[in-house]
Design brief:
The chain has about 160 residues and is α+β, with helices and mostly antiparallel strands. Strands 1-2-3 form a 3-stranded antiparallel beta sheet. The radius of gyration is 35 Å and the shape is flat.
């Protein structure tokens, strides 16, 4: 018994001889070197990108100060799609910042689209409710039928 435990313990720590060949060791070193290079390289590139974005990106004035909406929320046309504000929702509104007196574009949500999405959601909820109610009624009928059959069989067996 002790021999079996000793044998299992010693076999767990053995490294197969095929893993110690120079070619295999070199391939392992190359593989892990490439993995490490990719990981650390990606981390360095991410830091560089964040620094570049921090320098270029200046907060819009409507985040820092009060503003007045000069043009209501409307869908972006072909020319406006190049603006960053247009990329978020597909709708923009023109705002004028009060302190700096700058005109900027701000992403917004369309009331018509929001209403359409709301009614779609309500339709789905009502459909699921109706299907659930029908399935409950059908299951209850089936269970009642099974119970009455069981009672009938018990009475017949007396």
């Amino acid at each position: 018994m002790a021999c079996a435990a000793q044998m299992m313990e010693s076999s767990c720590w053995r490294v197969p001889l095929a893993c110690c060949r120079p070619r295999v060791l070199i391939l392992h070193a190359l593989f892990w070197g490439v993995v490490a290079f990719r990981v650390f390289g990606a981390a360095l590139l991410a830091e560089d990108k964040l620094a570049a974005v921090a320098e270029v990106a200046v907060a819009p004035c409507w985040l820092l100060e009060e503003f007045v909406v000069t043009a209501e929320c409307s869908q972006c046309d072909a020319f406006q799609t190049t603006r960053p504000a247009c990329g978020q929702t597909g709708y923009v509104e023109k705002v004028n910042c009060t302190k700096s007196n700058r005109d900027e574009y701000k992403s917004c949500r369309s009331a018509v689209t929001e209403e359409r999405l709301f009614w779609k959601f309500e339709g789905v909820v009502l459909s699921v409710t109706a299907l659930s109610a029908v399935s409950v009624v059908l299951r209850q009928r089936r269970l009642d039928r099974l119970a009455s059959e069981k009672v009938r069989r018990q009475i017949e067996s007396i």
